[in-house]
Design a protein that fits this description.
The complex is a heterodimer of chains A (147) and B (159).
Chain A (H helix, E strand, L loop, with lengths): L2 H10 L9 H9 L3 H13 L3 E8 L7 E7 L6 H9 L4 E7 L5 E7 L4 H13 L4 E2 L4 E4 L7
Antiparallel strand pairs in A: 2-4, 2-5, 3-4
Helix pairs in contact in A: 2-3
Chain B lengths: L4 H10 L9 H9 L3 H14 L2 E8 L8 E8 L5 H9 L4 E6 L11 E7 L2 H15 L5 E13 L7
Antiparallel strand pairs in B: 2-4, 2-5, 3-4
Helix pairs in contact in B: 2-3
The chains are: A alpha+beta (147), B alpha+beta (159).
Chain lengths: 147, 159
Amino acid sequence: MDDLDRKIINQLQGGFPICDRPFKVVATLLEIKENELLQRIEKLLEEGILSRFGALYHAEKLGGGLTLAALSVPEQAFENITTIVNSFSEVAHNYKREHELNMWFVIATEKPDRIQEVISEIETQTDLKVYNVPKEAEYYIGLYLEV
Amino acid sequence: MKLDNLDRQIIQATQTGFPLNSKPYHVIAEQLNVTPQEIMLRFQRMLEMGIIRRIGAIPNHYKLGFTANGMSVWNVPDEVVDEYGKKIGELPFVSHCYRRPRHLPIWHFNLFAMVHGKTRKEVEEKIEQIALLLGENDLDHQILYSTKILKKTGLRLID
């Protein structure tokens, strides 16, 4: 990654124009050629430095269900419980964290009602209580990583 | 305002990314058999409605060296949590900032702020800034570092 890559990443986190030739508009701001910008983005995607280039959609506004939930998993059962929780296709992310509540996962469903069903099924299969902490208010989402 | 069929087709076509082409909106338009003007109008509208949070690059923060990601959790009095939530959300190093329910006695935190940094020390300095901002309204806080990613798949929004 060189200076130009960094400039591109910083610039493209700020938004992307909606017009006939959006890459040309951004390239002009960066004082490079449109083609070079496209090639750079392609390379950054291939290298995994960018995980995606496009629109970031707001899951709940699309009508789906989304929540964060946690479990307190005994250390000796951790592997088994991980397998059970991860087996649900609705579990999108799952992290081990340092706390008494040591497993934190995001449940995303196409229909909001399905969230409670998934929670109940996880409770039945793991014999553990699921602590559901759905978002009650959102203050800001978005991250600008200066590189 | 509800999404119509074309909006859903646009989301489906672009949820994994935009075409890397000098005229990306034209490419999407061609795929969906509508005019580029219509596609651009839809994107503009979905942005205004908040269906799209933003358009642009989504960096992989691990690859950028932001490997210390602390989920900071705070116990803030209910009367002021919204006021401070907004202030904390505006800090440049905070991404997701949410109010969530408590589960007493095991869980008494009601405000979550994800803080990203290159080292734990950097994350801790940033957490300290949040603590200063909250002052006496910081009844308790903790940083829950992720010690292992157990699963990470992208959200499929529309199948």
